[in-house]
């Protein structure tokens, strides 16, 4: 098993480049199954989740070519040949590795009129049921049964039919899954309280490019007029907004006062105004120039309390990183989690490093250490965002921090240690035995 070893106290400066969005790439890959042809997705991130989902697609009969280490002109481009989809199952041994594999449910139902998909796995935190996905498909007319841990669905004779569906609560995954099925359903589907996240909007843009008739992307009401067929396309994935936010927080805590970190290849608007406003309130200066964000280090960080909420609110995927930033603040702050209320597995590990954090129900109270440093030690990753928060803590801790089980990290951050090392951080990957 791999771990990252970080020697703290080195200045973070120079440049970091944002890769393609993981949370968008996976729905784009699922959408490729709806086009009877060869689809090319540019700016595909080199992540374990992407390789896993490529294997899920291959099980259905799709041919997937993704060779990021090749000498090809576009090494970050994925080519998906979906002309021969002849197997409608997404097996447990692959789906258990990541929840996003459940997008196969909507993709196969939309393409083939039937699907057999294992209930998903993924990060080990919080209740994240798929009931909204199933209710949405039933509203479209699908007959759904359970069979030994698999969800089995079949469209009625004549195909799925449009419906008026309201999500309670709003769900990115359910919105995407139902859109996959509704794009070729008969009639009109209206999704109320739909997710407005950039991931959904960019995914919807690809469906539109394939010939889907969709209105309301980026709002909470999405209307889909079903079409007879969708076409294969060439499409470019957007930058990863969570990676951008992570790098901005890294710069705030580890870039020396008056010096800068330049972050390239970004789409700052995708962060949402609440994150940008909260970051501005910390007193850390940043400048946005198109796809480039420049962050300037400061002597002290102001404490800012945040509450997570669906886009354009503060992203739940950045609250763990924010908690590390608040350990460097000049006073107390709070982080309230309203999306996934059991997402604080990183807090006990931060406290082992000397952080002053206390969990109260669905909130964390953070007492900023100001000039007092965290202490390097062995810490355990439990999920993707928790793992990167521990890496951030290692940047500012005294001595060495060993972040164990970084296979979580590899699911969502492309070559993180290589990028950080290129910007001045003393970090290396090592194998270890548990």
Keywords:
434 residues; alpha/beta; UDP-n-acetylglucosamine1-carboxyvinyl-transferase, Chain; four-stranded mixed β-sheet; 25% strand; elongated
Write the layout of secondary structure elements.
Elements: E1 2-7, E2 14-17, H1 22-32, E3 38-42, H2 48-59, E4 63-65, E5 78-81, E6 89-90, H3 92-95, H4 103-112, E7 114-118, H5 131-139, E8 143-147, E9 150-154, E10 164-166, H6 172-182, E11 188-192, H7 198-209, E12 213-215, E13 221-225, E14 234-236, H8 241-254, E15 260-264, H9 273-281, E16 286-289, E17 292-296, E18 306-307, H10 319-326, E19 332-336, H11 346-352, E20 356-360, E21 363-367, E22 374-375, E23 378-380, H12 384-396, E24 397-398, E25 400-404, H13 407-410, H14 416-422, E26 426-431
Parallel strand pairs: 2-15, 3-14, 6-7, 10-11, 18-19, 22-24, 23-25
Antiparallel strand pairs: 1-25, 1-26, 3-5, 4-5, 7-9, 8-9, 11-13, 12-13, 15-17, 16-17, 19-21, 20-21
Provide a descriptive summary of the structure in words:
This protein is α/β, with parallel strands linked by helices and 434 residues long. Helix content is 30%, strand content 25%. It has 14 helices and 26 strands. It has a 4-stranded mixed beta sheet, covered by helices on one side. Strands 2-15-17-16 form a 4-stranded mixed beta sheet. A 4-stranded mixed beta sheet has the order 4-5-3-14, with helices on one face. Helix 1 (22-32) packs parallel to helix 4 and helix 5 (131-139) packs parallel to helix 6 (172-182). Mean pLDDT is 94; it is low at 122-128.
């Amino acid at each position: 098993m791999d771990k990252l070893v970080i020697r703290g106290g080195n200045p973070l400066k120079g440049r970091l480049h944002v890769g393609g969005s993981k949370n968008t790439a996976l729905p784009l890959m699922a959408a490729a199954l709806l086009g009877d042809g060869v689809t090319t997705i540019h700016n595909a991130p080199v992540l374990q989740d992407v390789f896993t989902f490529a294997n899920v697609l291959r099980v259905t009969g799709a041919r997937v070519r993704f060779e990021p280490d090749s000498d090809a002109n576009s090494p970050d481009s994925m080519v998906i040949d979906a002309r021969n989809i002849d197997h409608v199952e997404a097996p447990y041994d692959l789906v258990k590795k990541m929840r996003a594999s459940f997008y196969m449910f909507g993709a196969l139902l939309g393409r083939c009129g039937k699907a057999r998909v294992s209930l998903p796995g993924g990060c080990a935190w919080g209740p994240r049921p798929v009931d909204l996905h199933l209710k949405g498909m039933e509203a479209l007319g699908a007959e759904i049964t359970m069979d030994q841990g698999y969800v089995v669905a079949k469209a009625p004779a004549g195909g799925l039919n449009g419906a008026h569906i309201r999500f309670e609560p709003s769900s990115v995954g359910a919105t995407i899954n139902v859109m996959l099925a509704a794009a070729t359903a008969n009639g009109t589907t209206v999704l109320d309280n739909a997710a407005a996240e950039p991931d959904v909007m960019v995914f919807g843009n690809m469906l539109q490019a394939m010939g889907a008739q969709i209105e309301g992307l980026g709002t909470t009401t999405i209307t889909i007029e079903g079409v007879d067929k969708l076409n294969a396309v060439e499409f470019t994935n957007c930058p990863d907004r969570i990676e951008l936010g992570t790098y901005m927080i890294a710069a705030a805590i580890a870039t020396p006062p008056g010096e800068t970190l330049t972050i390239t290849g970004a789409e700052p608007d995708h962060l949402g105004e609440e994150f940008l406003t909260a970051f501005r309130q910390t007193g850390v200066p940043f400048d946005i120039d198109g796809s480039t964000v420049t962050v300037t280090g400061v002597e002290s960080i102001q404490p800012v309390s945040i509450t997570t909420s669906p886009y354009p609110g503060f992203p739940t995927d950045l609250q763990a990183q924010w908690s590390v930033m608040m350990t460097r603040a000049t006073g107390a702050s709070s982080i309230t989690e309203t999306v996934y209320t059991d997402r604080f597995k990183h807090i006990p590990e931060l406290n082992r490093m000397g952080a002053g954090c206390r969990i109260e129900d669905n909130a964390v109270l953070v007492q900023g250490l100001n000039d007092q440093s965290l202490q390097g030690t062995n810490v355990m990753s439990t999920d993707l965002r928790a793992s990167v928060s521990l890496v951030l803590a290692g940047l500012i801790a005294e001595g060495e921090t060993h972040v164990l089980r970084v296979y979580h990290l590899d699911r969502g951050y492309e070559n993180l240690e290589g990028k950080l090392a290129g910007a001045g951080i003393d970090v290396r990957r090592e194998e270890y035995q548990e």
